[in-house]
Design brief:
heterodimer, A: about 140 residues, mainly alpha, B: about 130 residues, about 0% strand
Chain lengths: ~140, ~130
C-alpha cells in the first residue's frame, strides 16, 4: 500500500460522507416523498443541495472505482466504512438528529470492524496471483502487508 | 409507517448496491490497476478501457437503482439510521457475494469484521 492508495481510501470516506449529508440536507427541504408521487423523486436532483451532493458522490465513485482496481471488494468496503461513523456525527452535529446511547454503541462496533479488516491485507492471495501476470510489483507490495 | 418505508428502502438499497458492487468490482479487476494504466497511457485510455468493459454499465445501472432507493429512504428516515444501516448490511451481503461470485478469500479477519458491523447495525436499529 502506497501513500497514494491510502489517499484514495480516505477520499472514498470523505466524499461519500459529504455527498450523503448534502443529499439528506436537500431531502429535508423536499420533505417525505410518497409512493404516489415518484416523479417528485426524479425532480429532487433540481434542488441545489441534492445537485451538489451528486457532484460529491461522483467524485466518491471515481475514487471507489480506482480502489476496486487494485484491492478486494471485501477490503475496500470495510476499510472505507468509517464513513458511517462520520455520517452519524454529521447527522448529529450539523442536522441535529438525536443519536441514542445504543446507536452510539452500534457506531463503536462498526468502527471496530473497520479496524479489524483494515489491518489485514488488501488483496487476498488468489487475486494477487491472478494479477501477477500483469504487474509483478503489485504482488511483492501486498505480501509485505 | 414511515419506519416501514425506511426499512423497505434499506432492503432495496442492500439488494441493488450488492449487485452493483459485485459487478463493478469484477469490471475493475478486469481493467487492472487504473493508477498504472493512467501513468502509462493517460486519462482517456483509462476512461475508454473502463467504459468498454461490458459489466461496467450493468453495475452502474444497479448503483442507480440503489441511489434512488437511498433518496427515497432519506425522505422517510433519519440520515443516521438509513445510511449506516443500508451501507453496513450491504457490507455483510457483499462479504457473502464476493466469496461466491468474485472468489475472494474471505478469511477469519474479514468475517469477524462482518459480524462486528452486523452487530453494530442491529444496535443502531433499536
Amino acid at each position: 500500500m502506497t501513500f497514494r492508495k491510502y489517499l484514495v481510501l480516505a477520499g472514498i470516506t470523505v466524499f461519500s460522507t459529504a455527498g450523503d449529508s448534502l443529499l439528506a440536507r436537500g431531502m429535508k427541504d423536499i420533505g417525505a416523498v410518497s409512493l404516489h408521487n415518484l416523479p417528485g423523486l426524479l425532480l429532487a436532483i433540481l434542488n441545489p443541495w441534492v445537485a451538489l451532493g451528486i457532484l460529491f458522490l461522483l467524485t466518491f465513485f471515481t475514487c471507489y472505482m480506482s480502489a476496486l482496481s487494485w484491492a478486494d471488494l471485501t477490503y475496500v468496503l470495510p476499510a472505507t466504512s468509517l464513513a458511517y461513523v462520520l455520517v452519524a456525527l454529521v447527522g448529529h452535529f450539523r442536522l441535529h438528529e438525536v443519536i441514542s446511547p445504543t446507536r452510539w454503541l452500534g457506531i463503536a462496533l462498526i468502527a471496530a470492524g473497520v479496524g479489524f479488516v483494515a489491518a489485514g491485507p488488501s488483496l487476498t492471495p488468489v487475486r494477487a496471483q491472478e494479477n501477477s501476470s500483469e504487474s509483478p510489483n503489485a504482488v511483492t507490495e501486498e505480501v509485505k502487508l | 409507517m414511515s419506519d416501514l418505508y425506511a426499512w423497505a428502502a434499506i432492503a432495496l438499497i442492500v439488494l441493488a448496491s450488492t449487485t452493483g458492487d459485485v459487478l463493478l468490482s469484477y469490471s475493475m479487476k478486469r481493467v487492472g490497476d487504473v493508477g498504472e494504466l493512467w501513468r502509462r497511457r493517460g486519462t482517456l485510455a483509462v476512461i475508454r478501457r473502463v467504459l468498454s468493459t461490458p459489466t461496467f454499465p450493468l453495475g452502474v445501472a444497479a448503483m442507480g437503482v440503489a441511489f434512488y432507493s437511498l433518496l427515497f429512504g432519506l425522505s422517510w428516515g433519519n440520515l443516521s439510521l438509513v445510511v449506516p444501516a443500508s451501507a453496513s448490511l450491504t457490507f455483510v451481503a457483499n462479504a457473502v457475494a464476493a466469496r461466491i461470485f468474485l472468489h475472494e478469500l474471505v478469511g477469519r479477519r474479514r468475517w469477524i469484521a462482518a459480524l462486528l458491523v452486523a452487530g453494530g447495525v442491529v444496535l443502531m436499529a433499536v
